[in-house]
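Side project, low priority. Logging it here so it doesn't get lost.
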Amino acid sequence: MSVSALDPKLDAILARRDELQALLSESPPGGYAKLAKEFSDLEPVVATIEAFRAVGTELRELAQLSSDAGTDREMRDLVDAERRALEARLPELERQVRLLLLPKDAADDKNAILEIRAGTGGNEAALFAGDLLRMYQRYADLKGWRCEILSVSDSDLGGVKEVVAEITGQGVFARLKYEAGVHRVQRV
């Protein structure tokens, strides 16, 4: 799908954002939460679309300035440098827009239960399981999520034999749904 083929979809998203803003200002209390959720879900998409379109607009303006006969050589060099920087940024913005337009899984906004168990490997496996738990806790902190330990079985050396944690926040399941598997710790 070309960039110009995306324009109607992008226009529809921006129109929906404007419609939601109007509805939120006159919404009855019962429907406000649903509208506010949809509006907050659209905000990152709208910000990326606006940045993508701003770069396109700026590129057109720079091309016009560069082709103007009245522009001196030094200004053309500055314009060309700016144009190259924007052209380098444009593919990443387009990729982000395309990713944000992908359909969302219905479960993506749900919370997650994280279970970590030290398997065979004794104390080293328990220490590694403790490291994994701390890694997930820090990741949750960085994302602004809440990580609550539901049950834990500590080992003698500061690791964990088994832990169950609930991670709550916006988009938790979308980020963690592929976190599964078995890790093996081996002393060399």
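Brief comment: The two ends are 50 Å apart (CA to CA).
Revisit when time allows.
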